[in-house]
Write a structure and sequence with these properties.
The structure is a homodimer of 442-residue chains. Chain A contains twelve helices and 25 strands. With 442 residues, chain A is an alpha/beta fold. The first copy, chain A, has a five-stranded parallel sheet. In chain A, helix 1 packs parallel to helix 8.
Chain lengths: 442, 442
Amino acid sequence: MGSRLVVVGGNAGAMGTAAQALRADPSLEVIAFERGGWTSSAACGIPFFVGGEIDSLDSLVARTPEEHRRRGIDVRLRHEVTAVDLDRRVLEARDLENARTYETGFDQLVLGTGARPLRPPLPGIDAAFVHGVQTLDDAEVLFRKAENQDCRRVVVVGGGYIGLEMAEAFKRWGASVIVVEAGDQVMRSLDPEMAAFVSEAMERIGIEVRLGTHVNGFDDHRVIVEGGDLPADLVVLGLGVTPNSELARDTGIELGARNAIKVDRRQQTSAAGVWSAGDCCESYHLVSERGVHIALGTVANRQARVAGLNIGGGRAEFPGVIGTAITRVCETEIGRTGLSEPEATEAGFDFESARIISTNHAGYYPDARPIVVKLIVERATRRLLGGQIVGGGPGVAKRIDVVATAIWNRMTAEELVNLDLSYAPPFSPVWDPVQTAARQLL
Amino acid sequence: MGSRLVVVGGNAGAMGTAAQALRADPSLEVIAFERGGWTSSAACGIPFFVGGEIDSLDSLVARTPEEHRRRGIDVRLRHEVTAVDLDRRVLEARDLENARTYETGFDQLVLGTGARPLRPPLPGIDAAFVHGVQTLDDAEVLFRKAENQDCRRVVVVGGGYIGLEMAEAFKRWGASVIVVEAGDQVMRSLDPEMAAFVSEAMERIGIEVRLGTHVNGFDDHRVIVEGGDLPADLVVLGLGVTPNSELARDTGIELGARNAIKVDRRQQTSAAGVWSAGDCCESYHLVSERGVHIALGTVANRQARVAGLNIGGGRAEFPGVIGTAITRVCETEIGRTGLSEPEATEAGFDFESARIISTNHAGYYPDARPIVVKLIVERATRRLLGGQIVGGGPGVAKRIDVVATAIWNRMTAEELVNLDLSYAPPFSPVWDPVQTAARQLL
């Protein structure tokens, strides 16, 4: 038996690292501690399960504890790691079911503790009808409520990705859904005028959007807001997440943006032999050139691959992120990458932007639908800084990947115009909408 | 009135150049000679019009002669340019309707003469039931035949893009369709095993594919092939196109790959002040680093933009192409970019490839369909050389654009794996299929 790797966490960041490390070095002894009862679950699928689009909760489990064990990982469910002693290379784990605590030694350690939904300290926030969206246990509870005919009035607090997806999920069951957002737009990662298209799409399918509305608390199936309380059978919190980095902090490991665990390009923390990957961990933003906290499955998987390769004796680097993300509101798809205008300002760029309306495919081909594309470039260099797409028709949002790849490679608007992108009438106008936006910038 | 620009041709290459030049320099006097009766028609839409998906032929006209005239271009339809005298800066035009010939002077000239379907000199190829697919007149004739209940047996000669699209068009009308291909695969721009998925998709919708079958001629509603003639009410030729470069050749202008008109990066031909853009014209392939002839609307439009900017006094360069193309057979989408294996061999690369099967979106999300992705890298540098995608689900083929953008930027497989692409369960697995293929190469 080789050296011992201990991973803390049971999802993509932790288990992905463990699996990759074991592939790279099969002599490793690997132990995984997971506080909950699941491993490798696809939390991003929860809104679609709650909405009734996905039949079985089991299908959201990419790999069960049993499957991990068959691959040689000693998975210990319902175990919480409560302390780490870096000098002694020992951690303290608490077996939650048997209420006992014991020590385990390690040679290398992975912190893949994930993130949790933000729960601001509002009166009544711990009431039973106020739910976060995180684990498959949450998914099951929310699905039961959604299909229950008593759950007719749903209030979603927060207009980000999860908020929108959960709003649509309950709308699918015919509930009356109100999204309450403290800011003056939904989807704060979009520019305001692009977010307005999203709000319109929500209103079109009957989801009420209340912007600039602060929630002051929760009380007896009511959400307390200015201008009249909202009755609610159920409240879903979609206020974003915060990294579970307390264990790292208490161990003396350095934290970065939004208290996410700081790592180098090899995913190593400030402590030698301690690695981190996934939602608990910071990323480097290649455009703003700053540390950011982006809790996404794609990022977690890529970080885990790099961490695992390094633990297994290889040498790999994770270059960073550019904030690419997509979602949808029914038929309206939404994609974004790079910096929004406020983010570009914040990062100190002098920029210009262009916004065009095109169609998802050739205008003369049936069912052509409007698609809005916005591109942001640095004024002096014309280098692309960001892109946003909102529109109808399948495959629209995934086009943001071309902009992402262009930004990743520091292309200019002129270079994007000349790029050899694909075209056929059922798929695109002859000038891809992304290129039409780039032409606008010339 | 400024200097005179004469353009030969009425489609994307010619009229796109004219329009762009006029925008850049409104003092230009612009005359356009077009042999046929249409301008700026979307030939790529013809199969979808013939298949009954597009209602009106007019919708395939991006800009009518009248619209061009209103923008200041003197469009002369049914005029053929028969000779160019570079020394005297004069050309000879024949007014086909009035059977008269006259001379017109020019300061700058654009050859945007397009391409025509290949018609090999087979016995009977000029019979009335044997059709090429090129102009909107062809489209109208083919549509009338398609909707005619007498046209039940259709033979398509050639298994390329147009052949496949026309086969599907007639299949939509319930005709019995046979595609006859001399080579041992359809879609010669794909590798054989990828093309096999396309053949299977064709067979699934009831199109018969006969590979390795040479056509020896046409006779009294029969296609003469080895092993038994095929009865046919209609034959569609899908054998590719050849550039209309005779006028250029006769003028002493240099030709390049497959007799396409040679141009520099500014789209200027070997003769000063004579420019070319579109299907008649050569392109530079950025991966093989050779001249190629690729007759596609996207390339024509980009070349025309560059030619027009230069004619109008600016300075623009067209960097080249990488052979990106997409099409579909019913629900099966097909995309390719860069070099195929035979092309990589031909270009002298030592390469490796990987092929993976993934799904169009998260496996647990409803209606996940298989998608096959193949990537080719240079062995020593791991630089991406080519990519191919075949699969089901809307938006699958357009994903080739990410590979195209990666190849354009000379990315390696490792860089592609780390790229920040978008993900949400209705749109993609957490590892985009393109990245799964890249991982296979590591």
